[in-house]
Amino acid sequence: MQVTFWGTRGSIAKPGEPTARYGGNTSCIAMRTGSGTQLVIDCGTGAHGLGQALLAEGVKRGHLFISHAHWDHIQGMPFFAPLFVPGQEWDVYGPTGLGGSIRHTLAGQMESTYFPVSLEQLGATIRYHDLGEARFQIDDVTITTRYLNHPALTLAYKIEADGGGVVYACDHEPHSREAALGTAELTGQDALHAAFVAGADLLIHDTQYTAAEYPNKVNWGHSTYEYAMLVAREAGVGMLAFTHHDPLRSDDQIDALLESARESMLAAGSRIELYAASEGMTIPLASTDGAGAAAAPLVARPARDMTTVLQRALFGMTDPGLSALFFEAAAESGIDPLFVADAADARDLVRGEQVALAVVEHDPNRFDALAVARMIAKSSGGSRVPVLAVADREDPGGEEAGISEWLIRPFSSVYASAKMQAWVLRGKSRWKKAPLPDDESKRLSALYALELLDTPPEPRFDRITDLARRIFDVPVSLITLIDNDRQWLKSCVGIDPVESPREMSFCAHIVYDRKPMVVSDTFTDDRFAENPLVTGMPRVRFYAGAPLILGDGECVGSLCLIDTRPRHLDAGNMSVLEGLRDLVVAEIERDR
Ligand SMILES: [Zn+2]
Ligand SMILES: [Zn+2]
User: Fold this and answer.
1) How far is the CA of 118 from the centre of ligand 1 (A)?
2) Which of 158, 159, 188, 157 lies closest to 174, judged by CA?
3) Which bound ligand lies closest to the C-alpha atom of 208?
4) Distance between Cα 453 and ligand 2 center (Å)
5) Three-state SS letters, 254-309
């Protein structure tokens, strides 16, 4: 297998005299195995030159892996010539963003405003494959992926073939600040990152910054030279190639950084070979005999076959209904479930297997989640495995015991799956369902007594929502009723009438709080940022609602406004909304 760099620059293409040697094109790497399997990783502007070279060589078949969809990693795709040529066959792989496939994401930059040829008009046969964390095979190549720490969902790729392995980890920010500065050992997620890299012959790593620059670049999503070297040493790789060079970094500066990196590696007693990746550089790996042989015919496998998962989670529960729900949620999230029936089994498993997450039923008589959380904290050696506790109500001792989040029953497998994915990928989930009100059964009786649920639309209600929509100039206004497990719409203007699960309902929060609620921008609100109604249709960005409280004191739903852009609602506006709400309540009460 051999690796050739076609683009090594981060963020934006930077041609010119100061970058002539290491190159000005953004990320693109070509790999070819001994038997001729052609792989391309990332499709920055370097892909233009690579495409021309592949056509000239007569390569007709290949696999293109996208780390993430930031411009500097995909901008060369509309200029990658093989995709335009009938008879060419390419498989494209990339991470699924929140709610969007890689195909959809790539099509975005080829819309007519930006580019004259659409994705559909490309001449080659192209298949798209959505990836999460997975391990799969393409002919003689084994590919393993792992999420990196970056503002966009980003995958690292481990490519193993011909007895050798290459890891491409770009763009990635250290999880720990000390590790970024190179002043601490790797722990937690940084240690897991190194464990993923372990054994590679060549590590190609993001080194956009130096430790000295990093304090001004926190949360920009990139690594330092110092961190990449820590990872390489911890992982025991043979070679480390620095890449994703900062656009402000001149060739002379890269020379100097490389020299001092080599000195510090030697001083640390390491024999890892260091390179600064440069355009046109080829690194041969062990056993490249036969490289350049005619490409063997390849058969791509459909995406669903690629879900051999890496993430294991421990499930400690005895309730069969709960086990069934989490079994389903684990399958939805691509998590390999390990069920245990008691705390002793849990301890053995945590010691023996690397688990990314634990979900534990909390019922002190059957399964004490707090005790399990303490045990996991002790046994997992500082890697901080998140523990989700499932219960009917929170136990005040949870925080001290190290419970990461309480999942209060009841909830659906969709909710459980969203929570687990969030914790496995990056910690804290940003979607919270509303708690149940204390008077829930009384509240439901009052709601059912109205006999309004599942009745046809009525002009007397629709007049009010239509008025609300026009007064506030929002696309959607609703009258919602919160049933046991669903939100039902008595009136809706601006949107198709659909009921949604109660755990997704914004109005359920109003029913719990019994107060008006304004969410000016859902993206910045931890209760709603990852709610499926925000990440998917109808893409709620703004919400304002007022509670429908009946004469007998029960809150049955809300009158609400929804917009797909962030908005502000001042106190005067709110009192208008409450006035309209009073009209809705009067209409409901009129029937009683
Ligand atoms: Zn980048
Ligand atoms: Zn990026």
Assistant:
1) 24
2) 188
3) 1
4) 48
5) HHHHHHHHHHHHHHCCCCCEEEECCCCCEEECCCCCCCCCCCCCCCCCCHHHHCEC
Nearest bound ligand to CA 44?
A: 1
- So what's the pLDDT on residue 421? 82
For residue range 296-337, what is the model confidence (pLDDT) as tens digits?
222 222 222 333 345 788 999 988 899 999 999 988 877 888
Q: Rounded to the nearest whole angstrom, what is the distance from the C-alpha of residue 245 to the centroid of ligand 2?
A: 12
Angle between helices 413-426 and 320-333 (to 10 degrees): 50
Determine the distance separating the centroid of ligand 1 and the alpha carbon of 43, expressed in angstroms.
11
DSSP 307-354: -B---EEEEE---HHHHHHHHHHHHHHT-EEEEESSHHHHHHHHHHS-
Burial (CB < 10 A; 0-12, 13-18, 19+), residue 211, is middle
The tens digit of pLDDT for each residue in 363-409 reads: 877 788 998 888 888 876 666 788 999 999 999 999 898 899 999 99
Find the 42 Cα to ligand 2 centroid distance in Å.
11
Give the largest Cα separation in the chain, rounded. 86
Dihedral angle, C-alpha 311, 315, 321, 324, nearest 10 °: 30
Q: Separation of 392 CA from ligand 1 center, angstroms? A: 44
Placement of tokens 């904290």 in the chain: 377
Rounded to the nearest angstrom, the distance between the alpha carbon of 153 and the centre of ligand 2 is: 9
This prediction has a pTM of 0.53
